[in-house]
Amino acid sequence: MGDTDPTGPVMDRDEVDRALARLGAEHEAVETSLLALQDHAGRRLLEGARLTGRTEERWQATEASITLLWTYFDAYSGALRTAREIRARRRWSSHDDLVELTELLRGECVTLPDPAAAANAPTPHGRAGRLSERYSLAALVELMNELYASSLDMVVAADAVWSALPARIDLLAAELQRTRRLAHPVGVRPGEHPAGDDLERITRSLTRLREQVISDPLAFWKPLEGSSAPGGGRPDTAVYDREARALEEVRREIDAVLAVRQDSEKRIVRLRDVLSRADRTLAEARTARGEVLAKIAATEVPVVSGPPTALQEQLSTAAEYRRHAQWHRLSPLLDSLEQKAEDELVRARESLTAVTAPLAIRAELRGRLDAYRAKVARHGLAEDTVLAERYEKARRMLWSAPCDLRVAEEAVLRYQHAAAELLGTTQPRVPGPPGADAPEERGGPGA
After folding, report:
1. Of all residues in the chain, what percent carry a pLDDT higher than 90?
2. CB of 213 closer than 8 Å to CB of 165
3. Separation CA 280–CA 297 (nearest Å)
4. Coil, strand, or helix at residue 132?
5. Is the pTM here over 0.70, yes or no?
6. If you write DSSP's letter for every residue of 288-333 in order, what string do you get?
7. With left for phi above 0 and alpha for psi between -120 and 50, is residue 176 left, alpha or beta?
């Protein structure tokens, strides 16, 4: 061969031996990889599965690639075997042997059918389709590595999804069945409770998800961006995670219903007690209103409403739900009733406070009057004519019915003014609304 031979200068014996050793190691590595791929659990599952969608398309291409891989490997093995036989002819290879070996080891000595035409497989390197292609052993190794990587990537991805998702879906489905067994006895059923409808929807979703995962695992695979390693990525669990969260919400709802079943009797008793206290408070307010109207003149007294009949009716409904074990309906009703009952008790107490305010003001004025009288008496001024006259006038107003609070307060203040003048202390301020500040001894007799 001349100097223009693409294989370059003729290799010497040492170069040949080193090349054969290197190619032999590559041959062993490729063979090990191909056998591992052949025995890969994911590949066996793919061969026996009824595939759809993206997985079906990629598996057809991968099967063709694996077939092509073995074709390349057989050709590579044959060329390497021929080279070894030539080298084994003589201990010291002749020049002609070395020329032949150089052609085998460096040149494009392997002719194979074009991949796309022969096996309907993707053409490596984007080579244009031809009837045949010539390869060097090094190029053949590179092509086999590319085909192996793409084939392994597909197999590993499908196997990873099958290893992860179906088992998790089955566990969630088992949990779903346990939840359903808890739900039905407490009335959480489809068409009767929103959580029962959710259970049905989750069941359908998990069934559909499992079928899709089994037939098209690659639809649930997320490749890792920037990774060129075969199988770089992770299963896409978004749908599974969403349904797991939905089931957890249903479980919480059922737990709440179960809690209602356990303590519903106590809660209903408490509700009756709260509403009873509200009724008694309103009754007391109505009685007090009559007393105020009789004892206090020129005062606006708010009207007291009747008992909360609507809440009593809802309480009866709650008791009916409990008797018929309709816990899913009882749960929200009790929650609503408890808040309404507390609000009703607060409203009743506020009504009583508003109605009895005039009586409280009268009691405060009485206490203030008696406190000043006690103070005057301690200073020996109780017999003062002006003080006695003003005290008696204020006392008659405050202890007579009906009592005009405005006039009575003015009388009390006049008595305070007179007492302050005699005692030489600061005059009490002009009154604001009834219930103004009292002197230091305000807590005296009659308070």
Report:
1. 23
2. yes
3. 26
4. strand
5. no
6. HHHHHHHHEES---PPPP---HHHHHHHHHHHHHHHTT-HHHHHHH
7. alpha
